[in-house]
Amino acid sequence: MTEAILEVKSLTTVIKDKRKERTVVDGIDFEIGQNEVVALVGESGCGKSMTSLSVMQLLPRTGEVASGEIRFKGRNLLDLKRREMSRVRGKQIAMIFQEPMTSLNPVLTIGIQMTEAILLHLGVSKMEAISIADEWLRRVGFPEPARIRKEFPHRLSGGMRQRVMLAMAMACKPDLLIADEPTTALDVTIQAQVLDLIRQLLKETKMSVLFITHDLGVVAEMATRVIVMYAGQIVEKTDVRTLFTSPLHPYTKGLMQSTPRMQGKIEKLQPIPGNVPPAGSYPEGCRFADRCPAVTAECRERMPELKEVRAGHQVRCILI
User: Who's near 219: CB < 8 A, 6+ residues apart?
Assistant: First the structure.
């Protein structure tokens, strides 16, 4: 891996309410190198989005980072004041959200929303900001950017809105792009277009990407390394080839077995039984114990540590 542009160390994020404090991200560690794509994988409720919101410092009012470090280019983002973080957010670190309709302001045109960020971060004139917006709208597949600028979000399709979000994220040429399930709500044709656009931008720039998804097909296509999360913890970390050829954690194996394959013998899918335990109700031992086909009594009593089983491959399981 090249020199890390993002280092997350012992990150713990909690959600507080009147009754109790719930841990949604529990002491995770990972890093992303320059021009590297790292995928963060897991079911809904595993803590993937909370991890990205912690990095961006966009947690809900009830959420806060309880401990740990988030180092971007060597600087701990948690030490920055709100105004300092606003200069980083959008300029050096940009984010694409899962549902663009809730991310775009419904009462402002696309043009106003795009130029606002460009004017704030690049310090250019309004005419230059419009020119930059048009350039990026064109690059993400809009042949008539001036027309798109005048539209309101509700007048665009889901795929068009997602491409607008990608253009907004890339307009200030960030060093790190966080893509939180950017293709989930799209049909396969538009999904392929969005992934192609991100791949093209990776070739043209030294941008790094944290790609959050539950789609293993997207992981195989986009990522160099993979982090598998379950119930707020990292349960496996390795390169993408090893993940698909030699997964070790029972949860990772379960994800593989529940994913349809386009080639080879048609086999019945084997879904993972049960659900991810909710934050605040995690079992005492291994958090995957209630759903694991190989569970032992020791699994229910002792929390396994994340250990390195071979160079660059870490697993959280006492059976390995």
Answer: 39, 41, 211, 213, 226, 240, 243
Helices (H) and strands (E) in the chain, counts: 12, 12
Separation CA 311–CA 185 (nearest Å)? 36
The closest alpha carbon to 28, from 6, 11, 51, 45, belongs to 11
Tokens for 271, please give them.
């879904």
**Tokens 């114990």 appear where?**
289
Quote the tokens at residue 138. 């064109």
Closest CA to 192 of 168, 162, 224, 214: 162
DSSP 90-105: TTTEEEE-S-HHHHS-
Q: What angle do CA 231, 241, 203 make, to 5 degrees?
A: 100
Kindly give the pairing relationship between strand 75-76 and strand 63-72.
antiparallel
Closest C-alpha to 226, from 97, 12, 48: 48
Given CA atoms 101, 102, 104, 107 in this order, what sign does their dihedral have? positive
Residue 142 phi/psi, 5-degree rounding, is: -105, 110
- Are 88 and 58 in contact, with CB atoms under 8 Å apart? no
CA gap 181, 55 in Å, rounded: 16
User: Over the stretch 69-105, which tens digit does the pLDDT of each residue have?
Assistant: 999 999 999 999 999 999 999 899 999 887 766 789 9
Burial class (CB in 10 A: 0-12, 13-18, 19+), 209: buried
Residues of the chain with pLDDT under 70: 1-2, 100-101, 185, 260-267
pLDDT of 163: 87
Percent of the chain residues topping a pLDDT of 70: 96
Instruction: Measure the CA–CA gap between 66 and 14, rounded to whole angstroms.
Output: 6
Residue found by looking up tokens 């410092």 in the block: 57
